[in-house]
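Appendix C reproduces, verbatim, an entry submitted by the partner laboratory led by Prof. M.T., so that reviewers can inspect both the input and the predicted structure.
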Amino acid sequence: MSSLRVRLPLLFLAGILLALLTTSVIAVRLFQDFAHDQAVAELTREANSIAQLYADAANETGGEHDRLPPRVTRTGLERTTGDRIYYAGVPLFPGEKSDLPELPQSIVEWKDGKQRVFTFTPPGADRRFLAVANPLIYGKRPVGAIIVAQPETNINDRVFGLVRRFAIAGIFGALIAAVFAIYVSRRLVRPVLALSHAADEVAAGRYGIETPGGSGEIGHLSERFREMAVRLAEAEALERNFLMSVSHELRTPLTAIRGHVSALLEGLVEDAETRDHSLEIIEAEAQRLERLVGDILDLAELEAHRFTVTSEEVDMETLLDRAYETFTEEARRRSIEYGREIQAHPIIQSDGDRVLQIVDNLLSNAFKHTPDGGRVQLELAQENGTVRVAVEDTGPGIAPEQRERVFRPFVSGDTAGGTGLGLAIAKELSAALGGRIDLESEVGRGSRFELVLPS
């Protein structure tokens, strides 16, 4: 009973049956009132007609006639109308006993000459009657009342007949509703169950799932679920590659450090020059390891949105001078044509240390991919409410399909002279500062990375 394919049709059917039951109760009640009103109207017409007949006959006996005029008998009237006829009041015909059963005034009041609708139990009877009492006028004054009555069971029989018809119609309606509910629920539940199965597959780590098609909300949900599965697969692949790359990057300096330390401890390095060289390698690899751990922590904080930036006045020209000077020695050593072009002197509100970190990372990336004897250019400009810092190189360039990947951690696999996280950190930092990094590149001619910050 916990299955959706069972509960949904039962819910549909229960709703339809409840609506049918409510409608039936209201309809029966309305028909009951209608039948009562119709019975009262019918009894009123008959009471008026019969009272008029008896009034005319009574008035004739008081005229010039020597004998009682012929009159309609009670038996004939009751057979014609199908109702009971009673009388309450003074004798209708002097010297004659009326053939109408008489009712005492305690059952019906007739002396005020008003028409009445009431219910009563006739003497000697065991069921109640609905009756209409119509005044009988003789000589312009009421002398009694003609009562026309019918058992209340007649009205109930009409209602019960309607209830039976409603019950038969309800049974057929419920069967049709059940078939419809099962059909609709299966149409609705089938894609939901398919999505449930797909969710189980994704939870088990199998992302190559088939989701149901369709239109409307189910189709939209299916499409979003499919996209989520693709993104989860990509995220898992990135995480796996990231962990493998981090393991490799950590192992490389650690392997170098362990090798030289072991050689020193075992006395394999005897002369001072070789020993100093080993210690220099150990220091360099330790610094590399420290940079790698710091970059990984920075990237983790940025991606988790736990990174905070400060706001201060930053002289961009002074900041670029610092960044430029960091790489002048490497440019001289590798015969790289290294220049800068300052087109503006902006001062912005930002985090100076983080802006400097971004520019350093862009320059480091440029020098890493620029061959000896190449060219690296650093530019500063201001336009349209933005400050632009461009780093242009004559490296191998980046193919269009690879431009998004270069901002991912460890995608190049070439980490010589760096951690392989520089561009990923630069991109995340620029977003944290309210800016972005644009990339223009041509394979074989170099790349241009441009940091855009609000001025």
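The two ends are 64 Å apart (CA to CA). Additional entries are available on request from the coordinating office.
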